[in-house]
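User: Here's a protein and a ligand (magnesium ion). What would the complex look like?
Assistant: Let me lay out the input and then the predicted complex.
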Amino acid sequence: MTAIDKTRSTSVAEEAPLVALGDVHLRFGANEVLKGIDLEVRRGQAVSIIGPSGSGKSTILRCITGLLRPQRGTIRVGDTQVDTLRSEAELIALRKRVGFVFQQYNLFPHLTVLENLVIAPTRVAGRDRAAAQQEARALLDKVRLSHKEAAYPGELSGGQQQRVAIARALAMRPELILFDEVTSALDPETVGEVLTVIRDLVQEGLTCVLVTHEMRFAEEISDQVYFTEAGVIVEHGPAPRIFGRPESERTRAFLRRALGEGARTAPARPAPLAEALPFERLRFAL
Ligand SMILES: Nc1ncnc2c1ncn2[C@@H]1O[C@H](COP(=O)(O)OP(=O)(O)OP(=O)(O)O)[C@@H](O)[C@H]1O
Ligand SMILES: [Mg+2]
């Protein structure tokens, strides 16, 4: 499998990472869940975290957004030292910059699809309503749901709701998005449409961290892959190396199991939408 062809420039290696975790330790009571996590995400990179259930993947994402505070170690997102944030205002400011999409989409059921996208930019970020609506429509186009802007979430399929949730996260113009198992609650036939949307965003330069059990998809879209087990990063590296030549026997065993048992081939790329906008243009031009 070859990595997708990205349109962005590759000078990112010289920049400081956008996200950096250093020796992060976190325990719940006596249960040590993260045991010294080091992880970096550079601007424009797609980073996947793979590993067995309970290995700490979601906990790492929750640390990045400040939802959980580690007992030891450092977490930086841009200029923000997340591990030392104290006030609610600082945490809210961080969460405006870091989008989070979960397995459960949690859309507002009483609001239309369009309103779901407009509410946070206008109420939280104080943006002009007409401009927020215009941007929301461009994002709905991007996730191929323009025809559903007046629908309510209850009238959509799971895959459609998840695409709205992704568009809603993008509407806040985050610096990066964390995806936590966003396809694992979906019917198999709607998984592909959500992965297609994520693939498009990654190709256009979205910075993201993706926790997924879709191994073929992780292999295809990721710049870097981290394999976690029992709260440690067993190994990490470029996707072709982790999937093609894993160094650790534990990684090999995990991949054998994960790829052997019902591994899904990533869906074929459909024809691009003629008017699709690159992510960077959406962020800065609207
Ligand atoms: N709020 C919490 N309180 C106590 N223990 C927790 C809490 N959240 C997670 N844990 C524990 O931390 C460990 C890691 O959980 P985490 O959700 O990060 O795993 P994961 O790798 O995301 O697993 P999965 O693939 O099943 O989603 C587990 O043992 C879990 O039981
Ligand atoms: Mg999880």
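Summary: Residues 262-286 have pLDDT under 50 and may be disordered.
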